[in-house]
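Hey, quick one: can you model this chain's 3D structure?
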Amino acid sequence: MPRQLVAYILFFFLILMGWMGKKVQAQEIVKIGLFPFRIYAPDPEKVKDWPAEIQKILGQELKKEEQIILYEEEKVKKIWQEGHLLKDDEELAKEVGRQVELDYLIIGSLTKINGSLSLDARIIDILQEKILGSAFAEGKETQPLEEIGKKLARELRVKILKREIVEKVLVAGNQAIEESAIRAQIKIKEGDIFSPRAVRDDLKAIYQLGYFQDVKVEKRPWGRGQAVVFIVEEKPVIKEIKFTGNKAIKTSELQEVIDLKPRTVLNLNAVQENLQKIQKKYRDEAYLAAEVNYELETPKKGEVIVHYRITEGQKIRIKSIKFSGNKHFSDERLKKLLPETKEKGFFSWFTKSGTYKEETLERDLDAVLAFYLQKGFYQAKVGKPQVIYAKDHIDIVIPVEEGPQFRAGKVDISGDLISPKEELLKFLHIFPGEIFNAEKVRESISKLTDYYADQGYAFVEVSPQTVLQPEKKYVDLSFHIQKGSKVYFERINIQGNTKTRDKVIRRELKAVEGDLFSIKALNKSRENLQRLGFFKEVNLTPKKGSGEDKMELTVQVEEQPTGAFSVGVGYSSIDQLMTMLQISQINLFGRGQRLVLSAQLGSISQYYNISFTEPWLFDTRISAGGDLYRTRREYDDYTVQRSGGGVRFGFPLFEE
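Sure thing. Here's the predicted structure for all 656 residues.
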């Protein structure tokens, strides 16, 4: 047995070494030498720097390949400099072979003629002293030399490393999907060196589009290299979405629930996700035992019908909600705290009461816990409800751990005090000796935070620190304050005002650039903007500015229509039938000005009025306005006609 084991280990070791040898050989380093290219041009003086430039370009490009290193560059260069005037490059290559341990030497020339450039290179196998292969790249004289050099370097890498060039990239098999959508995922380009890794990445990217059942790649001979062909097999297109078995819920209602659409490519994940949406719809309608499955029907190749089969069952509503562990409060008292989860009643068919939703019940339990914390049960816990299913109803049992009731012990404020402690204590809503109420603790934190924020401490932190005294059933409470640094409004940005001018908004703001941050200023600014009646929605969002003591304020508004047109009809003993017309605009040309045109027309009398108001005269708090009117009244023997006007001024006497 030991001999067999040794033999197996030795056999495995030999295989492993053989595999590693192949791997090492595949990644064998190739030592390259590079001669400066000889130049053949009608104007040699203008291109005298090109040999060094070409050598630099080729060297940089060849070194990008991990298997290639430019070996003994200085020694190779020296040999060329000493002999290139006396010998041709092939003769010099033999000398390089005697002095430097190279695998290959690249020699070449650049020919400039009639506005064209041609780079020609030969690869000399130093060991065998023969030409391994040749490569060339052509271009226009106007092209950058680097661009032509990169082409040649790519050809050289292919020859030296015996690799293949991608001559063509093709897409096949697509019918419904545009070829451009597929090509957008393909990164390999014509002219690249073929790389299996790059092809695999492109194949994966195409598959991840979600439109194909299968994606394959083929290599085909093409010119001097290979064509890479991506062959796709498309998923079928959804022809129709069917529902069967649904009686309680209409098909139109189920179609509104799902986002799967006909004439789109089949996606099985989307089909499954929509199945879950249908199940949720049934659960929300109290069909807790409903089952939904799907089938894919294929009327013809390339098309599919998604068929959802539904077994509804009967409605299952909540028959009873009970609590366990509650000693201080009855089940009835606690059930009233649940905002949405209710027991079924006589009118459940209409009110939908008694419908069980797991996520809704979880939210409702927060209200129960909040109630206990408000009543001093500082250690109260509300457990996971037990849902008991019967054939036609469910019962819910909610476990509660009340714990003892606590009162507030010592109440204090510590940390960074910007006012005498006695003044700050007035902001608290909780006092020693009273039932410990978590809601009052939150209100106290809010009051202290607002007070500090009004003094410029925008990033103040108020942390309640509690110490439990279980024997006395007291909770000592201290509000610890970290005020941070004072913050100033750095910049105020106005957004969303498509009609109203910036200055109309800015003049209503109590927050001013350069002023200390203030919560009151923000609240008052919001009230002023809402009172204008120009905006459907107003949001003021502060965020950190360029420094710790800077705050940017974004005022986001949503415009609403500010013009109105009204028509009325009335009757009087004098005029009989009267018509009343009014056109008004409270934000004229976005300047905040008000214009009202009104008329009252009767058979005996007519009244016309034009009213204009500028609420900020010369950008001050003084408002000004004017009225023009005209009346006409017909009597039996004569007609009375009056015209007139008035001027109005106003100024606010009081302001919060």
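One thing worth noting: Residues 446 and 556 are 25 Å apart (CA to CA).
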